[in-house]
Amino acid sequence: MGLKIDFASLFRAEVLALAFALTIAAIIGKQACGFGAVGKNINRLAIGFGMIPRGEVGLIFAGIGLSLALKGERILDEAVFSAILVMVIVTTIITPPLLQWSFSRRPK
Fold first, then answer.
1. Which of 18, 44, 50, 56 has the CA that lies 20 to 30 A from 89?
2. Residue spans of beta strands (DSSP E) within the chain
């Protein structure tokens, strides 16, 4: 999937802004789900942080969307695909440190 990225689009402000917005939405959405876990002595932060890097399926659909067209118009353009790819990479990279932090703040 990463080979389909248009590297030139990574230097455009609107692509970076969309990637940032997608990343924040992914983190907030997963944290909201983690805080919905029911039970006593549950590390809800760890649950939310553990769900953050789940963009692989979205990446597959983005790759399919990149190759599809509707009435001659592409479903996704390279800029949106690049933003999605950046979001998946960032959320995958930030998860281990966030999980480590969430586990270290709880008494053993």
1. 44
2. 69-70, 73-74
Return the minimum-mean-pLDDT range out of 8-12, 41-45, 104-108: 104-108
Structural domain including 69 reads 2-104
- How far is 34 from 46, CA to CA, in rounded Å? 8
The residue ranking higher by pLDDT, 48 or 4, is 48
Q: Do 44 and 34 contact (CB within 8 A), yes or no? A: yes
Q: In total, how many domains does the chain have?
A: 1
Q: Are 76 and 66 in contact (CB under 8 A)?
A: yes
Q: CA 8, 9, 10, 13: dihedral to nearest 10 degrees? A: 120
